[in-house]
Amino acid sequence: MTEFVSIAAITVVMFLTIGVGARGVRIARTPADFMVAAREVSPPVNAAAISGEYLSAASFLGIAGLVFVQGLGSLWYSVGYAAGYLVLLLLVAAPLRRFGAYTIPDFAGGRLQSQRLRQWSTVLVLIIGWFYLLPQMDGAGLTLQVVLGVPYWIGVVVLGVVVSGNIAMGGMKGITFVQAFQYWLKICAIGIPAVVLLMYAGRGSTSNLTVNGAPIFQHPTTVTMTQAVRLVVKRPTSVIATGVVDGHADVRKHVLLRPGTHTVSRGSTLRFRAGARVPVRLLLLQPHSPAWNSPFVSVGPDGAHPLAATYGLIIATFFGAIGLPHILVRFYTNRDGASARRTTLIVLLLLSVFYIFPAILSVLGRLRAPQLYLTGSTDGIVLALPSLILPGPAGTTLAALVAAGAFAAFLSTSSGLLVSVAGAFSHDLMRGGVRSFRWCALGAGAVAVLAALLVENFSATLLVGWAFAIAASSFCPLLVLGIWWRGLTWRGAMAGVLLGGGGCCAAITATMLGLAHSGWSAVLLSYPAMWTVPLAFAVMITVSLASRHERPSDVDQIMLRMHLPDALLQRTR
Amino acid sequence: MDGDQPGGPIRTLAWGPGEDSLPGSSGDVAQPDRDYWQILIKSLVRAQLGLSLLCLAFALAVTASFPILCAVLPRLIRVTVLGLPVTLIALGVGVFPVILVIGAFYVKQAARLERQFSQLVERVDGARSDD
User: Fold this and answer.
1) What is the CATH number of the domain that holds A154?
2) ipTM of predicted assembly, 2 dp
3) Which of A23, A82, A165, A187 is deepest in the core (most CB within 10 A)?
4) Range of B44's domain?
5) Pairs of residues, one from chain A and one from chain B, whose beta carbons lie less than 8 Å apart
6) CB within 8 Å: B87 and A295
């Protein structure tokens, strides 16, 4: 029954996506149509499309899961994802639209007249695109695994086929309407469950929110293991066990779990009494995280320097949105600079409303379904929550709605990313044109599927956070200085992009390989934005000043075009 | 049609250098005229940048000061309102109205600066053509 409702919901989402996208095929004719929907989208539709594209697996599943596991400090992700659009509005929205570039490499090449800078920007677009694309594929595999019980690869392949096929058919024209539709789908799919569950289970004790470490069972709770799990118990806990615990078969037997690690087999049940501490699954254990209700994020096994790590995350997310490759292209579909500003303001509103709901879900999970600390996975908590809090058909329906929304999140974000990645490939590394764009979309989709099959079990939010860090330390300074400072030269931009972006990529690679585990090295490598962003700005300014004779000759004309009010700009034509 | 073809260095821009006859950029404009346009546009860019940086500084001061505040006053973390920790109220709900208000303020002010600039240009233009 559960599977049936979920399958139905996900299928409906996919067919609506293909259907709305296919309508675009008849309208999309020229390459310009394919790439930017021919600039005829009104601010509210455009804003919904931007938000729909932006709210990815990380926002839909990742944040709530991370807050549930690590604590309220992870809310900085949602704050930063929204505030990134404020920074974008303040620093780049209108001038960038007036400049009229489709992509960041276009901006780099057009503003600074350098083919080499353009090519390196394309390489960075591809790197950021992959970092962002992987967690979407990963999330699709996980979602189908959690709600339908099918193998991981099925979700990955389904998403890859639907997205790349849809883009190859309709390009951006179809996608703009699909994205706008998917924002509203996503806000319903997370908002309705959050509000219903809040009304159903919102009243009662909130003591678990202020407890340090693992929360406490409020009621006698029976937990059924859907897979074999290793648990960490901090204090002696007596349970009634059915199944296999630590290799012993027990049937309805009182078992005392001593402090340490215990293995519970798949299908076993543990019954806890009210007031017992919730054991934590080894996979979700945070060895030295700060208190759950503190505003800091933690890093590494020793949890050193939480304040610095928090500011690293803040810098990456606040300044990363500017440099995301799939976002800039959306600004081109605004009519002029003023409507680009209006669009961004509406985006800010739509995102602010959305990001309230992951917080509600994570708090409800900690209060009313703490058994998820035993059985859940970080990104799977939102999916599992509705049926745990609300038993029966109501919970099943809400769970199906969440699954459909999650799928919409993967569909829309990976569509936008694939358009950017395929566009970058076909524009800058191949001959361009509709046919080449189509093949690049299919090829990029296939590569993303293969990569996602190789890497399983990454936290979506971490990967996406790193994509933001790379964007913040390469494209953010390039765009901000390029728009506001006449003195930027291609040499300065190139040095900044390579040192900032390259340094950030190196730090992330070191983190992924597990090279630094403690102290400052762990903080500086896991949250590199705190040093790579200032580095990129400093290098860009210094090298530009040193090579000031290389300022492009048409810089006055470009500044005029970017900053002249729209009405005057039209008059000068 | 060629202009629509994506690919190549700056062919994907909506415009090409030299395509517009922007004031102050074409060769047949007298030197004083060019200087006058450069000064005008510089003043506009400076005013817009000032507005943006002011809003950015205010937004950062209001939102990003929270962790350092909690680091200095650790007792703040344990404050609860109706049983909800202050971190949840600040980061889960509180910051969003703040950034929305700053954004709305900026959009209004930026449009006002542009209007003022347009009026100035028209007045100066009118005065110059009367000469």
Assistant:
1) 1.20.1730.10
2) 0.88
3) A82
4) 30-126
5) 199
6) yes
